[in-house]
Amino acid sequence: MYTLKLSFIKYLIVASFFNVSFSLYEDQIGKFDWKLNFVGNVKYGSIDSSKRLIVATEENVLASLNLKNGQIHWRQILETAPNQIVLLYVDREIITVSGGKGTWYVRGWDLNVGSLLWEWSFYMENKQNFYWILSKDQLVNVAPVIGSHLEVTQYDVRSGRNNGKTVKISTPWVSDLSRCTTAGVYWACLSSDDSSGQLYYTDVLAPANQVHMFPVQSLIGSAPGRVEIKFLELSDSNLLLIRNNAARYIHLKPDLPHVYPYSLSPKAIAVANGDQTLLLQMILNTTTKKYQIQTIELQEGTENVFEMEYNNEAGVASVITAFCKGSACRVLIKSNDNSISLLQLPGGKASWTREEALSQVVSAEFLELPLSELDASIEHEFDSVSGDRFSTFYNRIFSQIRQLLVVLTGKQGNSNIGLVRDEFGLHKVIVVVTSVGKIYALDSITGSTVWSKYLPNVQPFLVLEHQKAPLFVQRSARYSPLAAQCVVLMKDKITGHGVMHAFDPITGEVVQDLRLPYRIEQAMLLPIEDENHLKGILILSDDNEVNVYPPSAKSIILKHSSSIFLYTANSNTKTLHGYNLHQSSNDKLRVTSTWDLNLGQAELLAVNVRPSSERIHSQGRVLADRSVLYKYVNPNLLAIATLMDDPIHKHVLSIYLVDGVTGLVVYSVAHKRVAKPIHLVHSENWLVYTYYNARFRRMEMAAVELYEGATQSNSTSFSSHAVSQLPHPETQAYIFPGLPLAMQSTLTERGITNKHIIVALSTGAVTEVPWAFLEPRGPQGTMNPEEGYIPYIPELPIPAEATINYNQTIPQVRGIEVAAARLESTCLVLVYGLDLFYTRVTPSKTFDLLKEDFDHWLIAFVLIGLTAASYITKRLASRKALKQAWK
Amino acid sequence: MNIKCVIVCLLIYFFSFIYASNIEYDGYVHINLRHALVSSESPVFTDRGNITIQSLRTGSSTIQQKALSQSDKIKLRDLSAANKFYQLKSIVTASDGSQVSFVSTIKACMLVESELSDILSVSLDYSGKVITVTLAVASTSTCEGATVPIDKLKEFTTSVFVRHTENGPVPDTATYIQKLEREREAKERGEVKDNRSFLAKYWMYIVPVIIIMVLSSAANPDGAGGAAR
What we know:
The complex is a heterodimer of chains A (887) and B (229).
Chain A: H1 2-20, E1 34-36, E2 42-47, E3 52-57, E4 61-66, E5 72-77, E6 84-90, E7 94-100, E8 103-109, E9 116-123, E10 131-135, E11 138-145, E12 149-156, E13 162-170, E14 180-183, E15 186-190, E16 198-203, E17 211-215, H2 216-220, E18 227-231, E19 238-243, E20 246-251, E21 258-259, E22 269-273, E23 276-285, E24 290-297, E25 303-307, E26 316-325, E27 328-335, E28 340-345, E29 350-354, E30 361-368, H3 373-381, H4 389-409, E31 428-434, E32 438-443, E33 449-454, E34 458-459, E35 461-463, E36 466-468, E37 471-475, E38 485-492, E39 498-503, E40 510-515, E41 520-529, E42 535-541, E43 546-549, H5 554-559, E44 565-570, E45 575-580, E46 592-598, E47 603-609, E48 620-622, E49 628-631, E50 637-646, E51 650-659, E52 665-672, E53 674-683, E54 686-693, E55 698-709, E56 722-723, E57 728-736, E58 740-745, E59 756-761, E60 766-770, H6 771-774, E61 815-820, E62 827-832, E63 836-841, H7 856-886
Antiparallel strand pairs in A: 1-63, 2-3, 3-4, 4-5, 6-7, 7-8, 8-9, 10-11, 11-12, 12-13, 14-15, 15-16, 16-17, 18-19, 19-20, 20-21, 22-23, 23-24, 24-25, 26-27, 27-28, 28-29, 30-31, 31-32, 32-33, 34-38, 35-36, 37-38, 38-39, 39-40, 41-42, 42-43, 44-45, 45-46, 47-50, 48-49, 49-55, 50-51, 51-52, 53-54, ...
Helix pairs in contact in A: 3-4
Chain B: H1 2-21, E1 29-36, E2 46-53, E3 61-65, H2 70-81, E4 85-94, E5 99-107, H3 108-113, E6 117-124, E7 130-138, E8 157-163, E9 166-167, H4 173-193, H5 198-219, H6 221-228
Parallel strand pairs in B: 6-8
Antiparallel strand pairs in B: 1-2, 1-4, 2-3, 4-5, 6-7
């Protein structure tokens, strides 16, 4: 009986936790969330008819876009990188060749719905460059061996049947593959990169394999400058010889190549227009600063120039494809910011633009919006403390008149375009930085772009194999009238030097755009504000020079120099170093080494710190015997994950928790025979990490929680220098039935709400795992329900209701960004990868919010009714009492 | 049954203890300690002493440290009074002859206040290689500069702790399955044993129903009477 009851209680506990997981009603779809779908950085494109545009991208996505508005008809996501789509051919069906790492897939796709029609794959041992040619249902694989020969293999494109042999064509003239290309069925090479060289070409499918050779001089004349060879997109047996940015169109024929007399740009393409071939190129008119499209009819040579109504600060990168019918053309162009646009000829209008850079987000930040002007004016009423009675009275009357006006007219006399703070802090601006260097601000309610800014010639930093662009919030919008300010750090594409861009995140206004004269080693936001509420940024250059932005923050650093610490992690030398600034003087800021950590041969995988804005509500946990176990909350703790090759255990994962100030290893743990992927989440006094257990072939998730013990060493302020006792770790591991791509823990305003861990899975689901499920149960292994623990289950459940993106698959997730709303229960989540998905999660349900279907009218009527009834009965009672008295 | 379980649990506990201290390669480590007593941008390290850890597995060590000279004492006192940092450089020579050096920094005033009693923490990775050497002072609070009589600064009393990397937790499937089995067994046993009468089993449900019925009939006796009339 007792056991039965106990298990029933356990069931109740488990069931109640399942209910905690956020789930959505059908009519709530799209109410709190939005999703933006992208295809990625377009590599190949083909306009199939007047309706459809087929694109293949660097992200291994094949998609069909609507030619009218650019929306996605269908989208197929192929294998992830380093696999690549290398060939796209569109006819009655779509044929793609994709792969890498030896395995290649040839697939046929339906044009209308994008379903897979047929597929075959093959394995190729040698990993050198391959060239692919599709000619009359024959897929030809050309594998050049430098200085020796070409290996040419033919396959039937639909069945994969090959005629059983690989033809070797002797080509001793192939010296450098950057000077070789395929052009239709021809393989063409230049023997040197100036005008004195020869052009060799051979038909790889011809039985005789005759090699043709012509001096470059005889084709394009002699002139100084580098000569390059390029296959002309969308044509057959044609190529461009480029010298000094001017290109010549050459048609390869079995006897003599034909050279056309037009001077083209290297980005020219050829388009079939009925029987005619049209050459098409984009030119920037230097005087009017406007783009033009020039078309040349190949045979007649008639030229047409169309003015374009197209404007892009980033500049046009290439013309991807075009489709012409008579005099009307549709031209797909790609800009340097990876956006694609469809231009119409002869009108010259851009039909649509897709901002594909948003599929390459590297960092994101939620920002609070400023107060509306009215609210701000009310706040400013109290600014003038010394104000005399009359001015205060005047201010009060004035702001009340304005309030009245707003109520009467129903609109706010507002300059900042409806971007004002709401009551619950749910409306924010999301600033995202993309790997091409374009910064976007998105409205968190609608997902629409508020502003965007392109930084030319920049790229993100590569930190531990992840692309990162540090984004710091120097000042939030809280301090009106001072505008908010953010800084993004990237590096210059050519020199590798730092690039600093300071801007107002609400309006996009540039505060300062600096190209720094040094490489950035580490950057840090100072925790101290100056008199303008601006937090300085400390940048450590690669030769250990300390730089500060804004320079006025230097005095603050000098003041706090002995309490500012920073660390660097070097993945090449496998070392971590700690520094502080106590040697700084007025003339120069200096870093002094304070600690070293040498990881030996281990590969550094991740260094993780707690979110700085995190607040911890509860100092400890109450045990069953009413005593308190205090949490070890060290704000300076770094979590480090390393993977080391081992002769016995294959790979060993080590997790270290290191104090960032003293370098003390607080806790270290090793897992043997594990493999990547490894993800870390570090929050409050705990750490959660996932790894692949190669021995049992499953993903596992482990949790570490640090406790100080029954007494708190220092309850008022934490100091890393004072080490009284090392924390006592509690650990537990679980089987995780999924493959995580990214993990993040939820963040709320005051940290009262339960913590959930948001995990993006390879299946495209983003799920929530309550921390209560992962919490280590302690050394007693307590299954004691009084402790408030859920009974330990080795395999974590992933219930379908815990999926926050319901049926909207999010592929190729790279990161999750969270922010707290002003409502304690709510945490805002942005999941970024190929797509962007925004939603809110409420780990402890919306305990501080009335239900949506709350009946305001009913409660109002009941209240009014009760008040009225009480008055009436009071009257009646008094009348009755009066009558009684007269009796 | 219970005793068996206790033994199993003990064994598990014992094994985990052995595992935790089981590093694959035992060896000795020699640490040369050098310290900087003058705060400067490029600190000059002078000899402080030597520590030999004979066995990394047991953590036993011999410590050799000289008494501080008078000039060093003054330097240390000044360092503490100015609230500067005391830097220690540990040059670690492993049993295979490889040499690595680590810097560690503490507040000079804390060292002085503790009368030169400090803790040296030598952290190892899973294979027994030293990853860092950290100096610390056991204290519950920090100081902002302190002056201490110079005669209290005589000799370093250092305790050396060798800190191993533990083995990570593994999902505990065995215990869970055992627990399920036990629960199932208990349930089966319970079903066989429970041969009490119907009333004995369900009295706690029947009694409230009766009470409610009695109460409700007692509450409106005239209603019942009215129906009868």
